[in-house]
UniProtKB/TrEMBL annotation:
Protein name, as recorded: Putative glutamate--cysteine ligase 2
InterPro entries tied to this protein: GCL_type2/YbdK_subfam, GCS2, Gln_synth/guanido_kin_cat_dom, YbdK
GO molecular function: ligase activity
Organism annotation: Streptomyces pyxinae
UniProt keyword annotation of Transcription present: no
Enzyme superclass (EC): ligase
NCBIfam families hit by this protein: gshA_cyan_rel (TIGR02050)
EC number, as in UniProt: 6.3.2.2
Database matches in Gene3D superfamilies: 3.30.590.20
Function: ATP-dependent carboxylate-amine ligase which exhibits weak glutamate--cysteine ligase activity.
Amino acid sequence: MEEEYFLVHPDTHGMTAAGDRVVARASGLLGDQVAGEFSQGQVEGRTAPCSTMDELRTDLRRVRAGLAAAARAEGLRLCASGTPVLDGPAGRAELGDHPRYRDGARQYRSMLDDFAICAAHTHVHLPDRETAVLVGNHLRPWLPLFIAMSANSPYHRGQDTGYASWRSVIRGRFPCLGPPPYARSLAEWEELASAIAATEAMLEPGMPFWDVRPNPRLPTVEIRTMDVPADLDDTVALTALIRALVLTAADRVADGDPGPRPPVELLRAAYWRAGRDGWSGSGVDAVTGEVLPSGVQARRLLALVRPALRAQGDEDEAMAFLSRLDRRGTGADRQRARMAADPHLGRLVESLVAETCAGEPGAR
């Protein structure tokens, strides 16, 4: 599991460029489980490979705590939100120190001016890259629902966007961010990635930023569609659902099922609707075109993956998550509820910091 976080100043509540310093401090405790991100106002935490959700919860809490402590040592705070609620003192954040980020800035130019977004990425082990590509075909129709269930970016640089996941809107402007292509084989997938990279719409054919991909360095399928949740338990539950969906899809691939092939236009419309309305609204079934409440879609997903959830001992985790969504909504819903009760964006950021680091001493 990978999560990205903003570094915010406790007084201004804006994103602050200190990624290299925070990572250097945190790496003494966490090693390569921490890394820099696209902007210096962000950092990334990574868990070790885990077999159970209890293991994941424990390690993710440790990673968050280590990064939060390193941020506090630099006079900053760790904040899990899909977009920066408030701007930093200099507006656009300083670019992270990585050749790929510099290449991206040259290639996409002003499209990256406000590209500071934080995601949660889930990796699930699979036996080979061919299986990972074919599993992706089965995952594609469900990706909008994971946007809706993880939505945590209604505010962006001081403005209420009117969306539940503004992060998904920022990503949607790029030619190669979003749902992966349907591919009948790994060879077809690689051929398409190479052709797109040749147009310069993609940086590297071996590392596309599609929302499902065989990871280029790990023996996993990587799912990249979600906003980072502030509530650690939400991250864990979303991971349980994703693992169950991957296992269910892998069984179908083994049985020769090629997976549904919804029209790309309908899938992108489903992405947009999920980003706008989130959990509290309705979403689009990318296969049938039906517009359904997100809760109805989620229970269809639950029915599909329940055998895999039970086999992994994760059914209670998933059921508790859906109950939480029904009761209190997503991060986006909770952010708006806090603003309705106390319309002050700085205090909203403080509440996100507290939720990100819940249970850690000195979190605020």
